[in-house]
Amino acid sequence: MVRDITISQEVFDFLTELQNNNNREWFEAHKPTFKNHQAKVKSFFEAVKDNLNHHDEIEKMKMFRIYRDVRFSNDKTPYKSHLAGSFSRLGAHLRGGYYIHLKPGGSLLATGFWNPNKGDLFRIRKELEMDASEFRNVINKKELKTIWGELSGDEVKTAPKGFDKEHPDIDLIKKKQFVFVRNLTDKEVLSPSFLEEVDRSYRAIRPYFDMMSDILTTNLNGESILE
User: Fold this and answer.
1) pLDDT score recorded for residue 24
2) What are the angstrom distances between the C-alpha of 223 and each of 46, 211, 216, 220, 226?
3) Which DSSP string corresponds to 108-123?
4) 74-126 pLDDT, tens per residue?
5) Whole-number Cα distances in Å, 227 to 80, 137, 174
6) Which domains does the chain possess?
7) Calpha distance 74→76 (Å, rounded)
């Protein structure tokens, strides 16, 4: 059952003000207001997690801190002007995750595999090298593509070491990330049905996750590698 939890205009108004007054003095003066908005957004993220657990298995939900790590950045503003949360799928037999980014004029949903470890990345690439037909069929499913569009993510320029740059599926093999991103309008985020729409979007990606889980838990002969 979908819970009646929404993202309010007041949250976006606060984030806009924070972007325009990104300094410690302003933030400290408005910290009680921030804490209130943060708690409400966290409740929204918890509701997203509850919905996910009806059709997936979520190991943990993380709400990201508002404070920026400025040590290695040219941008020394101390605070993020967005709120975000991630949802990690359970253990070695599932992998991957979901992400929500809330920012006036720049909100999005994302899902997939942001930074596969070296072994997982090699396994995915070998699967694609051997036969990418199932992978292409899944990412081109009508419901998935209507909601999420094209597969995205960083990639190498030509071909990974040990792979043929002339391979017919090199467009997939050269990827370092395997993610889908759905950009959102403010109207969509502030809609009373946003929680339901988030869940609908995440449900649509399930065939992709099922396929990737199967790839990452088997060898190239299709035999399980889980203990």
Assistant:
1) 96
2) 36, 14, 11, 7, 9
3) EEEEEESS--HHHHHH
4) 889 999 999 999 999 997 788 899 999 999 999 999 999 999 999 999 999 99
5) 41, 30, 30
6) 9-216 (3.30.930)
7) 6
